[in-house]
Amino acid sequence: MKKASPIIAFLFFFWGTGLLNAQQNGSVLFQNSHVIVGDGSELSAVDVLIANGVIQSVGDLDGASADAVIDLTGKTLMPALIDGHAHLGYQAYDGWGAEFYGEENLRANLEQYAYYGFSAVFSAGSDPDLLGLNFQLQQAATDQSYAEFLFAAGMAPPGQGPNNQFLVETAQVEAATGMTILRGLGDPVQARAQVREAAELGIEFIKIWVDDRGGSQLKLAPEIYRAVAEEANALGLRVFVHQQTAPDMVDLIDAGVHGFLHGRIGDDFSAALAGQAANADVFVVPNLGLGELRREAIGADAFLVPFLDEEAAGRLRVSEQRLLTPVRDAGQEQSVRDGLARFLAAGGQLVLGTDAGAVPDHPFGYTGHRELEIYVRLGVPPMVALQAATGNAARFLGLKDQGLLRTGYQADLLVLDGDPLQDIRNTRRIDRVLLDGREVDRESLRRRVTGR
Ligand SMILES: [Zn+2]
Q1: pLDDT band for position 18 (50/70/90)?
Q2: Helices (H), 285-358
Q3: Where does CATH 3.20.20.140 sit in the chain?
Q4: Residue ranges of the chain assigned to CATH 2.30.40.10
Q5: How far is the CA of 263 from the centre of ligand 1 (A)?
Q6: How far does residue 86's CA lie from ligand 1's centre (Å)?
């Protein structure tokens, strides 16, 4: 490694404000750290050297030099988190709806994610195609100062897709931008054509909805989703599914889809289904917080307060609808607990996902930490929960050099003041967030998002 020149060292402290920078001009050596790798393993008292935005080496690096040397005794270093199911652009600091959708708000949402320690987010079928692709190009051309944006082409029977409230908003964004968000699939021929068109544009993911919304919409027919999956597989695209019930998953896996964005984990999530999903290496996002947190007074949570305007804070305080600790149905808890146990026993792969932004008041970033907490409450080992949010999420999203704390991987890192394996709520105790080797200024991100 190159030795730090006195000038660089001086500049480092001068720019300092304590923010680490291991991009072109600098290197950082973390010493004596507890490391969560992201693949289900951990290391203790190791050193991690990063430079050029990449993890250069992990191990006992006595004698290595760097522009900044940080002792992490008592702290935990892990890959930054990834949210495998969100809907970006509609939720803004002071409201929710189509009128907020645009590049500026997308960026603000991703800045909020970075504040909460996330390096990438998958937006599931609610973004205008050309705007999304352009946003990705812009992001790839600049230093990463907020979470990476991934998105899918949304596909459903014509005129359908998201929940009825959200459907109205996506239609408004389509009208305002003149771009396509939802592609209607009337028959298998049309389905194949739409997948080909998405692939030609450069879109990497297809999101399909297989849900009749309690009878208010048509359910996507098997011959149509089979055509989607076959065409997508032939073209190297991944198909992620919003599915209505666990039994629907059996035929969808057989059709060749790659993952499920809503768990439907309960009594009818059978051992046979768990085994089928595990054998096909199809992931499941349990998505439990969306139902649960709407009954909780999350506005009283100091971890969320920095991103609540006065109105939201009021709305989310303790009320008849929202309690500090919502009453939980013990039978239902047990049912999900047993279903998760069946899935993990079969070797099933969990991915963290929140559905943040699909409805008002399910905030970005914050809900990811809450989701991990729910997994652990329902019996998922903390290590498995953290793997869902790092290595697994990266693998299923095709992020090849992300999600693991390993030599050669991007230095997207989270320094925590406590060990989340001891108490999963320690993911909240964020000391530093690094994206591509550069520490993000969390407080200035917060100010940009909230304007205060
Ligand atoms: Zn969703």
Answers
A1: confident
A2: 289-292, 310-315, 330-345
A3: 81-297+325-396
A4: 6-79+406-450
A5: 12
A6: 6
